[in-house]
Amino acid sequence: MAAPVDLELKKAFTELQAKVIDTQQKVKLADIQIEQLNRTKKHAHLTDTEIMTLVDETNMYEGVGRMFILQSKEVIHNQLLEKQKIAEEKIKELEQKKSYLERSVKEADGLVTPVFYITLSPFHTQDRIFHPALPAISA
């Protein structure tokens, strides 16, 4: 009688563990992407700061692949500002995604513990298992 219930509990516990691990990996990936975007944004800001010290009529070379294109200071300045703006937007999106994933991990962690200790619960009977966070499992 208890064997099918134990198998269902084991399956539910394994699925929840897999979800927690997957979500934690996504959080780490989001952290790495945020760091990279912060570096990109800082690099663009520092480059723009140096470019702004030059005379307005200065022409500069922009690296494009394996060649260089002659551009005006204003064009390069606008490109760097756009690069900073895009990086900032992506950072905000990733931080929102990260906070959602962290909430998801907390919720899944909250479910893993009850599944693990459910057999010790007073609600555990031979016929049914009841837990507020889990669907009823029939034996």
TrEMBL record:
<comment type="subunit">
    <text>Heterohexamer of two PFD-alpha type and four PFD-beta type subunits.</text>
</comment>
<feature type="coiled-coil region">
    <location>
        <begin position="77"/>
        <end position="111"/>
    </location>
</feature>
<keyword id="KW-0175">Coiled coil</keyword>
<dbReference type="Pfam" id="PF01920">
    <property type="entry name" value="Prefoldin_2"/>
</dbReference>
<comment type="function">
    <text>Binds specifically to cytosolic chaperonin (c-CPN) and transfers target proteins to it. Binds to nascent polypeptide chain and promotes folding in an environment in which there are many competing pathways for nonnative proteins.</text>
</comment>
<dbReference type="InterPro" id="IPR002777">
    <property type="entry name" value="PFD_beta-like"/>
</dbReference>
<keyword id="KW-0143">Chaperone</keyword>
<comment type="similarity">
    <text>Belongs to the prefoldin subunit beta family.</text>
</comment>
<dbReference type="GO" id="GO:0005737">
    <property type="term" value="C:cytoplasm"/>
</dbReference>
<dbReference type="GO" id="GO:0016272">
    <property type="term" value="C:prefoldin complex"/>
</dbReference>
<dbReference type="GO" id="GO:0051082">
    <property type="term" value="F:unfolded protein binding"/>
</dbReference>
<dbReference type="GO" id="GO:0044183">
    <property type="term" value="F:protein folding chaperone"/>
</dbReference>
<dbReference type="InterPro" id="IPR009053">
    <property type="entry name" value="Prefoldin"/>
</dbReference>
<protein>
    <recommendedName>
        <fullName>Prefoldin subunit 1</fullName>
    </recommendedName>
</protein>
